[in-house]
Design brief:
Elements lengths: L4 E2 L6 E2 L4 E2 L14 H14 L3 E3 L8 H13 L6 E6 L1 E4 L2 E4 L3 H15 L4 E6 L8 H13 L3 E7 L3 H7 L7 E5 L11 H8 L2 E5 L29 H12 L2 H7 L3 H10 L14 H8 L8 H11 L1
The chain binds NADP nicotinamide-adenine-dinucleotide phosphate (NAP).
Organism: Listeria newyorkensis
Protein name: Oxidoreductase
Keywords: Oxidoreductase
Length: 310
């Protein structure tokens, strides 16, 4: 597998296995987050050779960005990595609000720069559409921030196909991040082909289907947390998927990697996808996911694995 890739046409070059930082300091999303484990996990990303961090304000309400910034400052490694982050959410006494207004995005970038202890963000995403601001106006604000040197590439996330087309009306969108994995390949129909046509890099989130595609869950050992409420973790659909996942063991053995590595390598074999950003709850999972770089799947193997889940 290629050891360095460019994210679309952004000029940003990274190792194709990035790091999804939604567990780092994310007290608002997961129970029992230990910030010392978060720090060790970020240090492990750096020592394992990954160099692409995917954070967001929503991951710990700024804490994920702060901890990444802290470790990069401590290790002096800022210039070795590519930092992506996102904003849209405002936490108020009456709940969470979404904002894509140019004023909000401009301020959000300034605050994220402080938390990350840097003077530029490599890739900044609008995390969710707010349903009010015209998407092209929101992206126009990011274009001005790019011209000002505060961000280097423009991303949008969780946009519908229609909203994406408006957001990219002037061709300014560099990256689209949306939910995609081998078990929910729906975006192969329209969004991924659109991204390929427009020279936009598509970054799938939840590439391991939140752990379902790692091979660690069994019929008698389903997850015990919020995941058990999700459709893919229930009933016959769950049993069918884990049987398919288990059937990848032979291919994993052939390449001397894990089932999770086969799934990530297959995802990287799909046209339009340059990088994956698996999440990890521990330094061990970071190291395990980096072994994907050792999995040199043939085109036929990629297609066989994809066909299994279709
Ligand atoms: P994921 O990558 O599909 O799954 C990650 C989870 O799988 C980990 O938290 C861990 O949970 C388990 N895991 C990871 N590596 C493993 C390994 N080698 N062996 C066994 N288990 C392993 O899903 P995700 O973390 O939700 O998504 C990835 C990233 O995408 C996020 O971190 C975030 O940066 C981004 N994201 C973006 C959005 C958006 O709206 N733009 C939404 C969701 C995610 P357990 O140990 O608890 O099983």
């Amino acid at each position: 597998m290629e050891k360095r890739v460019e994210i679309g046409n952004t000029g940003l070059r990274v190792t194709p296995i990035g790091f999804g930082a939604n567990t780092i300091g994310a007290h608002n999303l997961f129970q029992d987050i230990d910030e010392e484990v978060s720090r060790q996990t970020v240090r492990e990303v750096l020592s394992a050779g990954a160099d692409f961090f995917d954070s967001a304000f929503m991951y710990g309400l700024g804490r994920s960005e702060e901890l990444i910034g802290e470790i990069l400052a401590e290790t002096g490694r800022r210039s070795d990595v590519v930092l992506a982050t996102k904003a849209t959410h405002i936490v108020t006494d009456s709940g969470i609000k979404l904002d894509n207004s140019p004023a909000f995005l401009t301020e959000a970038v300034d605050i994220a720069l402080k938390r990350l202890q840097t003077d530029y963000i490599d890739l900044f995403y609008i995390h969710f559409p707010d349903g009010v601001t015209p998407p092209d106006e929101a992206v126009g604000a990011l274009k001005r921030l790019k011209e000002a040197g505060k961000i280097r590439a423009i991303g949008v996330s969780n946009f519908s196909m229609e909203a994406l087309k408006v957001a990219n009306k002037d061709g300014y969108v560099d990256v689209v991040q949306d939910k995609y994995s081998l078990v929910y390949p729906e975006l192969e129909r329209d969004m991924i082909p659109y991204c390929i046509e427009q020279g936009i890099s598509f970054i799938p989130y939840t590439p391991l289907a939140s752990g379902l595609l790692t091979g660690k869950f069994t019929a008698n050992n389903p997850p015990q947390d919020f995941r058990k409420e999700r459709p893919h973790f229930q009933g016959q659909a769950y049993l069918d998927t884990i049987a398919k996942v288990d059937s990848l063991q032979g291919l994993a053995d052939k390449h001397h990697v894990s089932i999770a590595n086969i799934v990530l390598a297959t995802t990287l074999g799909i046209d339009g996808i340059d990088v994956v950003i698996p999440g990890a709850k521990s330094p061990e999972q970071v190291r395990a996911n980096m072994k994907t770089l050792d999995a040199d799947l043939t085109h036929e193997e990629v297609e066989q694995v994809r066909a299994l889940f279709k």
